[in-house]
Structures are given as C-alpha cells and as structure tokens.
Design a protein that fits this description.
Keywords: Disulfide bond, Endonuclease, Glycoprotein, Hydrolase, Metal-binding, Nuclease, Signal. By secondary structure, the protein is mostly helical. The chain has one domain: P1 Nuclease (Orthogonal Bundle), CATH 1.10.575. It has twelve helices and three strands, in the order H-H-H-H-H-H-H-E-E-H-H-H-H-E-H. Strands 2-1-3 form a three-stranded mixed β-sheet. The longest helix has 30 residues. It starts with a helix and ends with a helix.
C-alpha cells in the first residue's frame, strides 16, 4: 500500500510538471515590468510603490494570469487579447460585448486617473495594466479568432508538440535560459531618437505594430512546422525588442497617470 501511494504521488507530480506552463509567459511579463521600473519618474515610482505596498512592477506583472483560476474574475479573460481578420482593422471590425485588450487597457487607465476611484480599485487596475501592456506586445495576442490567437495553430517545438501561441509566449524565452533580471539588463542600447520613437504614439499605434508582426509570423509559419534553432535565430531579437518596447511604453503610461 505504501509503495502504491508513493507511485501514485510520483505519477501525479510528473503529470503536473509536464503540463505546467509559464503563464509573454511569467518570465516575459516580469521582464517588461522590470524594464518599466527603470523608466519611471521619481514621482510615479513613489506613488506606485505606495499603492503596491512596496512591491515592484515585475512582482505584480503576472497578476492578470494568476487570477484566471478564480471564477470571480472570469469576465476579465477577454481583456487579454484582441482578434480580428487580417483584411480588416480594429476600428472597422465589430467589437466584442465582453471587451478586449484595448478596452481593458483604456479601462485601467480611466480608473487610475479617476480621483474618485478607491485605493482597492486602483491597486487592482494597476496590476492589470502592467499585465495587459505585456500582452499588447506579444504579437499573437493581436491575432485571429478562428485559431484563438495561435492556440489552435499546432506546431512542433524541437521534438515536442505545442502551438504557435505558446512558442511566442514562452518557448523562445525559456530557451534563452536567462532570468527576467538578466534579460532586462541585457536590452539593446537605444539612441535618443530610437527611445523617443518607442515612447511616441498611442495604445492603438502600439497594437498595430504588434499586429504587423503577427501577420509576418503567420506568413512565415505553417501548421505542423518543426520549429527549433533556426526559428530562434530568426525571431529572438523580435521577442527581445517587444519586451523592451513593452517596458518602456508601460512606463510612459504610468508616468502620465502618476506624474
């Protein structure tokens, strides 16, 4: 009996290990949060630290995913993405009644700017905004409804079956084998003009950038493709760039909100 229980525990533990995913994945969201922290104004940093009780943006960056298992927050699930056909635009395509990533970001900004919002409301929407800006810069979050943003686009990662969304969310970042702090410290050195270009524009413009990348990804990938070292070589710089842009732009929004 004792051996049976031990064997059962081993099977359950192994299954959990094999099926667990870093739900950008956890590392990617933390990279974006860590980079944003470095671009905050002193005033914004002080106000945010007070709201988060001293926690960093990296620490709270996965809150939006962490609450998915709680039915009380189920209504926020559609806020993590926006889907529309490649031959259409966000403005022209009918909007979901449940909301989408753009609506979610705008709601968070409105709540944080509203002086009548409670402290609890501000903390919640701040955490969600940190997560959503990360999602905004993951190209497959600006995807197609028919394959659920690449979740039903089956490919192989080296010798393992997976989907295109997971490759971009997690697999390439994991393969880089660096912590979120290491990745955040090893971002590209930007000229003044490059930084200003990244900081310019609005949320919808940043979404359209990700949308253009999403189109390129679909144009260069077919269902069933075996993706490995060459895919990493071709796309890892795009991943790193999107993480960096996400962090810088998150700081732009937070500096605007908190001064």
């Amino acid at each position: 009996m004792k051996n049976y229980i031990s064997l059962l525990f081993l099977i359950v533990f192994s299954a959990q290990t094999l099926t667990a995913t870093n739900d950008w994945g956890k590392t990617g969201h933390r990279v974006t949060g860590e980079i944003a922290q470095n671009y905050l104004s002193k005033k914004a940093q002080k106000k945010i630290s007070k709201l988060l009780n001293g926690a960093s943006l990296a620490f709270v960056s996965n809150y939006g995913d962490d609450i998915k298992s709680d039915d009380a927050y189920r209504s926020y699930s559609p806020w993590h993405y926006v889907n529309f056909p490649f031959d259409s635009t966000y403005e022209a395509h009918p909007k979901s009644e449940k909301g989408d990533l753009i609506a979610g970001i705008n709601t968070c900004i409105e709540v944080l700017k509203n002086e009548t919002s409670s402290n609890q409301e501000k903390v919640f929407h701040l955490k969600m905004l940190v997560h959503f800006i990360g999602d905004l810069h993951q190209p497959l979050h600006i995807g197609l409804a028919e394959d659920k943003g690449g979740n039903d686009f089956q490919v192989r990662w080296f010798n393992d079956g997976t989907n295109l969304h997971t490759v971009w969310d997690t697999k390439m970042i994991e393969d880089f084998s660096m912590s979120y702090t290491e990745l955040a410290k090893n971002t590209d050195v930007l000229t003044k003009n490059e930084l200003e270009n990244i900081q310019s524009g609005k949320v919808i413009d940043w979404m359209n950038e990700s949308r253009a990348l999403c189109k390129e990804i679909y144009a260069s990938t077919e269902i069933g493709d075996k993706l490995s070292y060459r895919y990493i070589y071709d796309h890892m710089n795009t991943v790193r760039s999107q993480l960096q842009k996400g962090g810088i732009r998150l700081a732009v929004l937070l500096n605007n909100i908190f001064g």
